[in-house]
From TrEMBL:
FAD/NAD(P)-binding domain ranges (all copies): 4-127
GO molecular function: oxidoreductase activity
Pfam family, one: Pyr_redox_2
InterPro entries (alphabetical): FAD/NAD-bd_sf, FAD/NAD-binding_dom, SQRD
Domain of life: Bacteria
Name of this chain's protein: Probable flavoprotein reductase
Length: 379
């Protein structure tokens, strides 16, 4: 009987895994000894990091989307369905409509979602850029903004570790280009005692904020938003008034993970090296869905997917997973002024961002165009 590989999730992690597996086992797929099925809840694949560029009129929504089917190897079956339950004991998935999908090997790549609803008042008064709808709404708000107090606030956990710094510096640049910077006050808030959790980024970020006249307040854990008086309150008791509130809402894993009882907050306990779900041999987890002690970012999904594929092939051929993910992450940091920096780190080596340059900015812009090769498992 053919072995069934099911990949749950149609984002970057699941798509890379599907395509790389198809290239690793073409003979088995042709002989139907193995089948690969990807299940996604939408027919459209989006380049999620690109949403950051929409508010500043640096990209268009249509540039960030492709039909999911167009990105997959022809040997991969794609099913659009919404899975409501994952039963790892019986090795089956059940959709909201009651349809069942059995598997021999399961890859869970269900990602994470922003949850502004978890912070009172945030959904009504805040703006964010982690969804198409949110990025367009923020773009429209910035287009009509004529000056005033802008506050950047965030919840934890959230995807993309450097997004708070990026949106702040890109905002500063955007307002300068529109001649509004002198009419505007930018206040950046952060939950810990520095402007970032990564010490090297915090040191560089604070210096850059000082140079650009950006105020910042640390130990500011967003508690609630007073929509009437336009004030954001922290758990520590402080408050900051705003005319425009830009946020990075706290994120949670997919609802199906919570409903299936697979992990608190929607994060599945995962072996940090082999990427197997703790307590299982044939269930792997990749991308934001894991509880790994590294950033939830596109590059994390990419680098861990490379390792996961090798371990799935090991399992298919009767061997124990032998490849180990070292926690590698690489993130560009857009800094405005047509410049960018980056951070690269793993489980044991902390990052140190170099001085921003125009060349790194254009490397990032180029990668935005080449992303579709990544999702196809080529780049």
């Amino acid at each position: 009987m053919a072995k069934k590989i099911v990949i749950l999730g149609g984002g970057v992690a699941g798509t890379i895994v599907a395509n790389q597996l198809a290239r690793k086992i073409p003979g088995e797929l042709r002989s139907r000894e193995v089948s690969i099925t990807q299940i996604g809840n939408t027919e459209t694949h989006t380049y999620q990091p690109g949403w950051l560029y929409i508010p500043f009129d640096l990209s268009r929504p249509e540039d960030l989307k492709r039909p999911q089917r167009s990105l997959l190897d022809p040997s991969i079956a794609f099913v659009q369905d919404t899975i409501a339950k994952i039963d790892v004991k019986s090795q089956k998935l059940t959709s909201k409509e009651g349809k069942e999908y059995s598997y021999d090997i399961l890859v869970i790549a269900t990602g994470s979602v922003p949850r502004p609803d978890l912070t009172p008042g945030l959904a009504e008064a805040g703006h964010w850029f982690h969804t198409e709808e949110g990025s367009i709404k923020l773009r429209d708000a910035l287009r009509t903004f004529t000056g005033g107090r802008i506050v950047i606030a965030m919840g934890v956990p959230h995807k993309c570790p450097v997004a708070p710094v990026e949106v702040t510096l890109m905002l500063d640049d955007y307002l300068r280009k529109r001649g509004l910077r002198e009419k505007s006050e930018i206040t950046y808030t952060y939950p810990v005692g520095a402007v970032h959790t990564i010490p090297a980024v915090a040191k560089w970020g604070a210096q850059t904020f000082d140079e650009r006249g950006i105020k910042y307040e640390t130990f500011f854990n967003m508690k609630e938003v007073d929509t009437k008086n336009k004030v954001v309150h922290s758990m520590e008791g402080s408050q900051v008034p705003f005319d425009l509130l830009i946020t990075i809402p706290q994120h949670r894993g997919a609802q199906v993970i919570l409903d299936s009882g697979l992990g608190e907050g929607g994060w599945i306990p995962t072996n940090k090296e082999t990427l197997q779900m703790e307590g299982t041999d044939n269930v792997f987890v990749v991308g934001d869905t894991t509880n790994l002690p590294v950033s939830k970012a596109g590059s994390t999904a990419h680098f861990s997917a490379d390792v996961l594929v090798e371990n799935v092939v090991d399992l298919l051929t009767g061997h124990k997973p032998s490849h180990k993910y070292d926690g590698k992450v690489f993130c560009f940091i857009e800094t405005g002024r047509n410049q960018a920096s980056y951070i690269s780190f793993n489980y044991t080596t902390p990052p140190v961002p170099p001085t921003p340059t125009t060349m790194v900015h254009w490397m990032k812009i180029s990668y935005n165009k080449m992303y579709w090769l990544t999702s196809r498992g080529i780049l």
